[in-house]
Amino acid sequence: MADTIFGRIERGEIPADVVYEDDRALAFRDVNPVAPTHLLVIPRKPIETLSAAEAADESLLGHLLLVANRVAAEAGLENYRLVINNGAGSGQTVFHLHLHILGGRPLNWPPG
Ligand code: AMP
What are the residue boundaries of the structural domains of the chain, listed by start? Predict the structure, then answer.
């Protein structure tokens, strides 16, 4: 897949406000937050979209959810929303799989 800005963050080539990292995942603050707390969780593996994930990624995908919950708890969020935009038509702009963690304000349902 093509390199992305998240690939460059993952390799430490450009700065980000990293709040968590381990051997498989990284979490950092979204540069353009749409909620008082807006964090992104990415796999170190450059998977383009959720649709591009494979059976071999099952454990990694579960890990990303657990990282998201841990990061949300550490940010003090009791209530939060996870969002994965899958494809340009859903609003995905960076083609390196990422989970948005949104919290710190009332979150309406259904989302737009
Ligand atoms: P999506 O639209 O789901 O692909 O989300 C991409 C997100 O990445 C957006 O919320 C952007 O604000 C965020 N973003 C883009 N560049 C950076 C960056 N350099 N550091 C942190 N967040 C970024």
Answer: 5-103
* Ligand 1 touching residue 53 (CB < 6 A): no
**CATH classification number, 5-103, choose in 3.40.50.2300, 3.30.428.10, 1.10.3720.10, 3.50.30.30:** 3.30.428.10
Report whether residue 86 contacts ligand 1, using a CB cutoff of 6 Å: no
Residue 21 pLDDT > 80, yes or no?
A: yes
Residue 2's pLDDT is 79
Q: Is 98 a catalytic residue?
A: yes
Atom of ligand 1 nearest to the CA of 14: 19
Quote the mean pLDDT of the chain: 97
Strands 99-103, 37-43: pairing is: antiparallel
